[in-house]
């Protein structure tokens, strides 16, 4: 239904005349849900509105099941705890039993004697690694200490041989000894130098061998830790799979084999399955969606030239198109800070909430919404979102 501004402006011209013609008699206030006075109320802004809703609750199933029965139809009203759909969960129970068996088996394997032996081996390897690492870093390994002592002695003897050679070099230059005698001391120095070199090489080899032992121990440790981790992870993964599957049925909209409404007041918006449908459980599958009846409101299309004359405090009543003899009190939920175009006009869709429930305010129905006009234009004072 399109709002006709020309007819509306003409109506505003006629309404005051009707009002003055009948002003001799005081008219009592009309209570909620009573017939609308034919004369109307002077100065009201009347906007066409459509009943809408803001909240939809989708119910999905993510475990194996079969739809056994559907207890509601699209458009049905439902209350908290109302049965919506009944499921056959035989496949789900089989899956849970299978996962329970796997979890028990993995746990038993983790608690086996091999598990304890792995832990003991890991402890021993860690101690060996710590000890040998200390030996390598401070040179306290007996073989290293012996080689270090040998090196120190060889270095002293090399120094003594060098001093002797230097002394006999002077004697040779003075002709006090023969060259053959001098060469004997030179040969001694070569032997001592070789001894120093051999001692250093032996130390390097021993340290390398110790490092290789450490590397081997670390490799063994890594292998043992991986085995232990695999056992523990297998048990944990199996238990996690079981817990996740059990959690899938612990939802506020599930009661035994029944899908129920967990809304205080709802309306069935859509049913996405049929009786006998199979839910494979591999992904979440939507089965039904409910409108939250408490989120129902009227979207009133107020022309832009009148929006400044209403506020969040404006008095409001709703006249359903399905029963024009009724007027239902309400209040403004929102005056949007944005206009939209409709049929060449600019309108603001003001959200109005009825103060009481009515069978004449249902999603998709239409109504006329009456707003009391502000006594002075102060711009848009309503709630801006």
From TrEMBL:
- Coiled coil where? 144-248
Annotated signal sequence range = 1-25
Query: Which UniProt keywords are present, listed alphabetically?
Result: Coiled coil, Signal
Answer yes or no on keyword Signal.
Answer: yes
Chief localisation class: other
Identify the domain of life: Bacteria
| Subcellular location per the Swiss-Prot or TrEMBL entry | Cell envelope
Identification of the protein by name: Efflux RND transporter periplasmic adaptor subunit
- Stored InterPro entries: UPF0194_transport (IPR050465)
